[in-house]
Amino acid sequence: MCLNSNAKLAYRFSIAPMMDWTDRHCRYFHRLMSRHALLYTEMVTAPALVRGGALHLLDYNPEEHPVAVQLGGSDPAELAAATGFCVERGYDEVNLNVGCPSDRVQSGAFGAVLMKSPDLVADCVSAMQEAAGDVPVTVKCRIGVDDQEAAEVLPEFLRKMQAAGIGRITVHARKAWLDGLSPKENRDIPPLDYPLVHEMKRVFPDIHLSINGGIASLDMVEAELAHMDGVMVGRAAYHQPYDILGDADQRIFSDARACLSREEVVFAMEDYIGRHVAAGGKLAQITKHMLGLFAGQPGARRWKRVLSEGAHKEGAGFALVQEALPR
C-alpha cells in the first residue's frame, strides 16, 4: 500500500502523532484495523537525527503505509537535512510540529511556541519542501498560544503557510498555554473552538484542512467531514482503537471489505509478536498498545489485567496474549 496511489483518500482520516504512544508497534497494530487511515509517527526532533545521528528513530514496518513522519525543530537547514533522511526511508509525508506545548519542546524553540514566529515557520517549511522533492510537507498547528487572539493569529498563520507552498494543514482546535498549563492539561483545559476552524476552511478553500482535538468517535469524524477536508483523531484511537478504526474503512473510505474482528486482530499480531520476542524484545512493548482493544466489551477488564501483570515478565510471548483473550 502506498499513500501516493490514493493520497486524497488517506488524507480524510488520520491518527495523530502522540509521544510515547504511536511508535512502530502501535502503528502496525492500528494498520490491522484500517487499510486506509493515515498513521503518524511520534514526533522526532531534527537535532536528534542531524546532530545525534539517531536514525533508528525513523525505523518503521513496510506494512504501516500510508505512514507520515512528524518532525520537531526550528532551524531551516537542520529540518531540511532531517527531511532528506525521512524521504530516503520512504515516508509518505513529512509533517512539521507547530503544536506541541511541552517544556522540553519550548526549550528547543519549536512546537507550539512557533505559532509566535510564522515567518520562521515559513522559512522552515520552504527548506523542507526543497529537500522533500515530490513527498508532501505538511504542518500541524494550534489555533494560537497564550494571550494571542486566535481569530486573528490563525488566519495570518495559514496565509503565510499557503504563501510558502503548504497545501495541507491539520489544526488542533485549542490554544496552547505555554505558561501555566502542563502538556496534559493543554490537551483538555483550553476550550475547543471548532467554529473557528470551520471558518478557516471557508476562508482558505484551496488548503486541505483537517481538524484535530476532542474527536472521540466515528460519528464525530463523519460530522466533522461535513465541514472539513479531513479529521485527525488522537487519544480516542489509542484508548479505544477498535471503536475508532474497526469500521473506519467502510464508513469513512467506502471500502466494502470487512474489517477483522477484535479477536482476529489479536491473532493477526501473532507472527509480529513472535518475531519481536525472538529478537530479544519484550512482549509488553507491543501489548501496552493493545490494552484498549476490547474496551467496552465483556472480558475487557481481565484482558487488560492479564497483559498488564504478565507481559513484562521474562519469556512472555503470544501464549499470554491468548490466555488474556475474553472468554
From TrEMBL:
The active site is at residue 100. GO terms for molecular function: flavin adenine dinucleotide binding; FMN binding; tRNA binding; tRNA-dihydrouridine20 synthase activity; tRNA-dihydrouridine20a synthase activity. Its EC number is 1.3.1.91. The record marks 97, 184, 187, 301 as: Interacts with tRNA. Gene3D superfamilies: 1.20.120.1460, Aldolase class I (3.20.20.70). Signal peptide: none annotated. Pfam families: Dus (PF01207). Keywords: Flavoprotein, FMN, NADP, Nucleotide-binding, Oxidoreductase, RNA-binding, tRNA processing, tRNA-binding. Residues 15-319 form the DUS-like FMN-binding domain. Its cofactor is FMN. FMN binds at residues 17-19, 70, 140, 172, 212-214, 234-235. It comes from the Bacteria. It catalyses: 5,6-dihydrouridine(20) in tRNA + NADP(+) = uridine(20) in tRNA + NADPH + H(+); 5,6-dihydrouridine(20a) in tRNA + NAD(+) = uridine(20a) in tRNA + NADH + H(+); 5,6-dihydrouridine(20) in tRNA + NAD(+) = uridine(20) in tRNA + NADH + H(+); 5,6-dihydrouridine(20a) in tRNA + NADP(+) = uridine(20a) in tRNA + NADPH + H(+). Belongs to the dus family. Belongs to the Dus family. DusA subfamily. Catalyzes the synthesis of 5,6-dihydrouridine (D), a modified base found in the D-loop of most tRNAs, via the reduction of the C5-C6 double bond in target uridines. Specifically modifies U20 and U20a in tRNAs. This is tRNA-dihydrouridine(20/20a) synthase. It comes from Celeribacter halophilus.
